[in-house]
């Protein structure tokens, strides 16, 4: 069974600081890994999708890395802004499965 | 495109009542999913569908039923609602089985 862990559960940083969010998973036989953002009371917005063959993906200020062998992914958000305050979820899809296994998320607060 | 839409946004049910959560996507995606999110937990897959007429169980299917008569619609039926079904329900879709999943805004359900 795939277990996905995100530590810390919550993070507070001053505006302008770089954010580093961690995601670890127990089964390295993954198909891809997806990072989402969730605002309070809202649905999930897809941020980045990394295929198992890729090492990283970038979109604007966001960069996600993937190390399958160690079962880790890291989401970097450069020069954080108050608008980045949200919960960030990572989800892993195994090679032989349709479902995504989600972490519980890291709630980020960026202080102005 | 509206993306993935869900109705209703909120609902309160009494124990033993039934209801259908509606989900529609206008992206012509073959794959659709129903998840539930409990406080402080990651999302768990209830049911999924790989195309019209084809559905299968996810991790937590007990107490739910689905149907998929069209590509666009994937309703989730709750029979005999129980307090354990109090949760936020998300519908998602993807173009390919391994592609990024796009989520609706969610339905917040309370069973009293």
Explain this structure.
The complex is a heterodimer of chains A (about 110) and B (about 110). Chain A is mostly beta strands and about 110 residues long. In chain A, about 0% of the residues lie in helices and about 60% in strands. Chain A contains no helices and eleven strands. Chain A has strands spanning about 5, 10-15, 20-25, 30-40, 45-50, 55-60, 60-65, 70-75, 85-95, 100, 105-110. In chain A, the strands form two sheets. In chain A, strands 2, 4, 5, 9, 10 and 11 form a six-stranded mixed β-sheet that branches. In chain A, a hairpin with a 5-residue loop joins strand 4 (about 30-40) and strand 5 (about 45-50). With about 110 residues, chain B is mostly beta strands. The model of chain B has no long low-confidence stretch (mean pLDDT about 95). Chain B is globular, with a radius of gyration of 13 Å. In chain B, about 0% of the residues lie in helices and about 50% in strands. In chain B, strands 2, 4, 5, 6, 9, 10 and 11 form a seven-stranded mixed β-sheet that branches. In chain B, strands 1-3-8-7 form a four-stranded antiparallel β-sheet, with no helix packed on it. Chains A and B meet through strand 4, strand 5, strand 9 and strand 10 of A and strand 5 and strand 10 of B.
Between the first and last Cα atoms of chain A, what is the distance in angstroms?
41 Å
Low-confidence runs of at least 5 consecutive residues of chain B: none
Major sheet description of chain B: 7 strands, mixed
Q: Quick one: biggest sheet of chain A?
A: 6 strands, mixed
End-to-end Cα distance of chain B: 36 Å
Q: Regarding quaternary structure, how should these chains be classified? A: heterodimer
Secondary structural class of chain B: mainly beta
Report the helical percentage of chain B. Answer: under 10%
Based on CA atoms alone, the radius of gyration of chain B comes out at: 13 Å
Question: Which parts of chain A are unreliable, with pLDDT below 50 for 5 consecutive residues or more?
Answer: none
- Percent of sequence in beta strands of chain B: over 45%
Of all chain pairs, the largest interface belongs to: A-B, 24 and 27 residues
Secondary-structure element pattern of chain A, one letter each: EEEEEEEEEEE
Number of helices of chain A: 0
**Broad structural category of chain A:** mainly beta
Question: What's the helix count of chain B?
Answer: 0
Number of β-strand runs of chain B: 11
Question: Rounded to an integer, what's the Rg of chain A over CA atoms?
Answer: 13 Å
Q: What is the number of beta strands of chain A?
A: 11
Along the chain, the helix and strand elements of chain B come as EEEEEEEEEEE
